[in-house]
Specification:
The complex is a heterodimer. Chain A is mostly beta strands. In chain A, 12% of the residues lie in helices and 41% in strands. A two-stranded antiparallel sheet of chain B has the order 1-2. In chain B, a hairpin with a 2-residue loop joins strand 1 and strand 2. The chains are: A mainly beta, B mainly alpha. At the A-B interface, helix 1 of A face helix 9 and helix 10 of B.
Amino acid sequence: MRTRNIPFILLLCIAIVLTSSSTLFAIGSGGLLNIVPQARVSLSGEQKEWAVYVHPFEGSVLVIPNDSDTCYALDKNKKHAIKIAKSSIKFQSTGVVDVPEDSPYTILKYRPEFGRLFAKVALDDGRMLIVDVER
Amino acid sequence: MDPFSSDTIHFVSYLAILASVLFYLLIAYFNSRRYNPNRADTYLRYRHTDTIESGMSGEQLRATLMASSFSLASAIYVYIDWASADGMLALWSPITWTLGAVVLYTLRKRIYSESRIAWTIHSFLGTSYRSNTLMRLASLVTVLVFLLQVAAEVFVGIAVLTVFFGHQVPLFALCIFIGAVFIAYSVIGGLPSVLVTDFHQYRIIAFAIGVAAVILLTSGGQSAVDQVVDSFSNSFLPAGNSWIIVLSLLCLNIPLFITDMSVWQRIGATEKESDITRGLGSFSITLFLWMSLLVFLGVGFSTYFVGFPDLRPAQAMITYFSDTIVFPILLVGLIGALLSTADTFLISSVQTLIVDWRYHKQLSEKEFDPNSLEPVVHRKMVQQSRIGVLVLGFATVIAGYFFFTNLPSLLDLLFVIFGLQTTLAPIVLWGLLKKSDSRDEKAGILSIVVGSILTIILLVLALAGVSWFGISTALWAPILVLFGSSITFFTVRITHR
């Protein structure tokens, strides 16, 4: 075996391990999300009383406004943000929602950013949606 | 500054791009000092002379062919887009491409012996059919195909760099930047520089795609595998109109390598026949594996890249990495893919024009022996080649900027460009099988004329939005051009004997 091939073989091994251990539970693929009561939502600096749900494994975030039929989901795996109708979301029990796989959605122009205690995305109209959690 | 903030990643990306560009220019400079810059056969053919210790090895041959195959336009941008839309049907492209590499492998010994004598594939055709007209027509086809391919690379380069630079830098400036890099090192070092940079570019591209694939696999690799498996059963076997696309791919890819002037150039530049066998054998396998990986990534992660407003799937793939440290690596790899294809086609076009048009008479009088040429002729050839690289290079950059934004999808365009090249298939194959002579001249000329006219008609129809059986006329180009030129060649050949 040639020495210069070692990095590529190493990459291949890592890829095989990661492939077998990484399953996608992204929003729109049927995963269940749990409510995060302590999360705060702001839209271009204005505080909103909107509900925030998060996927337990991957950390994708769903924001459900109380004053509009359009919800926003920030998908951490696919690194995109989507707009989805509130009617598509199934409220399973208190504090748990499901976004069914075949729900129609629109991808927003800008990709979301995820930090340890925050997630944010610029909406198509330029307003910044920020979700953060105080420890 | 946060170690992984977008500012940091952008800064590192700038540094990485500049470092890679500097690296290529330095390679060109130092390489040009290794050999006699006034020898035309060294500048244009990388031939063994007293100043170059040896030609290419088998490994270098594989690397340079792979680097050109990793074209940013056809093999990366289009594959990701196409696989996102049509699933595993796109895998037929690597399959048929590999079949083309196997055909090249089968005919390698004949191509090697012919390319060691003739300076270009067209000179070989001219000698085989004893016709200067046929040689010149064939060389025009090559030059047109290659320069359009360079322009397509520039167009895709703009699309990629726009994602990175945003709209802060004007598109025209991006074009000039891309063009200036590959034109500069091609002017400095000629074919030797192009081949040596290809060797390094291949490693950089492979590493970048490998790292990007690993990062993607961390975000749903198992689901991607499921998606690929599903797509295999749903879309791999062509159904309905898809058969036409597969047939078109077969017609396009099987004769692609043996009619490619740049492939002849590189086979001729290889030191020994055993190196060709080793290099082309491993190239066939490597080509299939890497190109299939690109299709798998496109299919497996298609839901990640499709649906963004104003972004093609391939562009969305780049933005996916924009907040990770993989971004600079990927960017340098993609630019390497662009440069490695554009430089190859540019230097081949210039060689074709200089050898087949400007100096053909002098070369044929000396039986194409470079040692019989006067030193002053060598110097003039190198000088004019450098001017050719400069002028044609910038002309294609401008063409890429102005024309391609007005054309339909890039996939359609590439089918037309390479469809034109298939017009050379019957005459090249007949010549390689040593069955051609001066009585076939008329058949050869007419086959090129018919193939070229068909290409123009199909391009015009495609631009007008015409489709047959639901398939754009552009995608019909390889089938109709190959059949049209083959039928013309053999019919005229039989009737005129």
